[in-house]
Amino acid sequence: MPGESNAVAGVLHERQRPVLLRFVTSSLVVAEMEARKIKHASSELWIRAIQPALWLLVFGSALAGVRDIAPSQFSYMAFITPGILSQSVLFIAIFYGVTLVWERDLGLLNKLLATPAPRPSIVVGKALAASIRGVFQGLLVLALSIAIGTGISVNLLYILGVFGVVILLAMCFSSLSMVIASLARTRDRMMGLSQVIIFPLFFASNAIYPTQIMPEWLQLVAKANPLSYGVQAVRSLLLTQNFTMLPTDLAVLAGYTLGLLSLASLVLRRIAS
Description:
This protein has 13 helices and no strands. The chain is mainly alpha-helical. It has one domain.
């Protein structure tokens, strides 16, 4: 059949392309497919934006008068804004594995794995799509924090840097979510495991209080927590403008992201089985 011959020719042509080019194009195609899902379910993004707004307006306002939580040169509202921004990205990315399990149940994941796209490119594409959601959340939190006058920097270059950190955070935790999906295997278990992991990640970080006031054992946990490095990087860009630790924060966060992307690529077939 002519149609089948064209399809086979297309597959052969795809496999003959340079590996790096095939990887990049496959990743972008998967990311574009996932982005179209966001377009058709945009209400989910607005609903998820309610939680960080409540954290910032209610929790931040309630503790604004408490001294010695934030460094004296900043208000607590300013101090907490980078943490709430990073938290919103964490919350939206860590549940990405639920979508993966849903695609498995519908047979979509097996079809995707049957394409010539390299397996790591599928993971990278899905992680990039999660970063689109993260950027949207980041925009909403930034807009709200500027509107209520928290005192964060509105320097365009620094804000662009913040979105670079947001992309890394979203890719990191969406990859972790894919790894969790390989263990959970069902949507109910996936939701349960995500809930178990998400709150220790958030509260054992420097998102809503500095690590200096934590007990020593919790400081060690916070130093091993990738969210802490993301928060610290965002805080240096939006608040302190002290970039001494920024290269280290970005390097550690990038290392976590690459490690989890690699692990997710290895277990992707397990999710589909």
